[in-house]
Structures are given as structure tokens and as C-alpha cells.
Amino acid sequence: MNHKSGFNQLNMMPAHRKAVMRNMMTVLFKHERITTTRAKAKEVQRFAEKEITRAKIDSVHNRRMVGRKISDEAILAKLFTDIAPRFKDRAGGYTRVLRLGERKVDAADMVILELVERKDDGKKAERDKRKAQKAEKKAKEKAAEEAKA
């Protein structure tokens, strides 16, 4: 049996497929989240996880090996100084795939591929703060009603 020995060719020529994978990995590390088709996401996930594992040890050799796939110096630096240290204690599984449904045009399965431990851009903290304020306000109103009764 020859299980799990291949990869998804994505109906592309090898040079095009490599370019797409490198570009999607670069964008994933830049924005920490991308929306794409399920097949592409699963292929990118394989490569991205290997690069993050390699980036956990910051050495000249590892920078050059990862630099083969990621040509943007700023993204390469971000991977080694910001992203990889977040996953120091994690043994694997640095990305997740969240399903979105089907694309209307061609019914392709669309997903979000994101890093598991994403940096908050402040929105989550603001949302939690508003929820806490609402809960506090409700508690005060309830206490005031009970005091009246």
C-alpha cells in the first residue's frame, strides 16, 4: 500500500504550484490568516507547519533554508522573531482550517487558514471590554430593581 506518499497537484504545473505555495505561505505569515479553497489550504498548511518548526531554532542555516521558500526579508524576520517564538512550547499543529462553505461561482469549498495563536489586533480586547460593561450595567439595573421591591 502506498498511503500518504503523494501530494495534491492542484491541476497546476510544478513551477506554478511552487510559486502559489510560496506566495500563500508568505501571505499567511504576513497577515496570519488567509481565505482560500480547501485543497490549497491543506497543501499550504503542510509547508507552513514545516517552516514554523524550522524557524523555532534561529540559526543562519535555518534562516537560509526558510529563505528558499519566503523571499521577503521582512516576513522572514517576522517569522523568526515574532511567529515562531509564540509556538516554542507547541509540538505541532500551528495552523487551523475553518470552513466557510461553498463559493457561489464554482461551488468550491472555501476555508480560512490561520495560525492557531494569532496576535490580537485589539478588536477582541475591545469586544470583551464591551461585554463586561454590558454585564456590569445589567447587574446594576437588577440590583436597583431589587432595592425598589
What this model shows, in words?
With 149 residues, this protein is an alpha+beta fold. The chain has two domains: 14-117, Ribosomal protein L17 (50s Ribosomal Protein L17, Chain: A), CATH 3.90.1030.10; 119-149. The chain has helices at residues 14-31, 38-55, 60-69, 73-86, 123-148; strands at 33-37, 95-102, 109-115. Strands 1-3-2 form a three-stranded antiparallel β-sheet. Strand 2 and strand 3 form a beta hairpin. Helix 1 (14-31) packs across helix 2 (38-55). 16% of the residues are buried. The mean pLDDT is 93.
What's this model, at a glance?
The protein is an alpha+beta fold and 149 residues long. 58% of the residues lie in helices and 13% in strands. It folds into two domains: 14-117, Ribosomal protein L17 (50s Ribosomal Protein L17, Chain: A); 119-149.
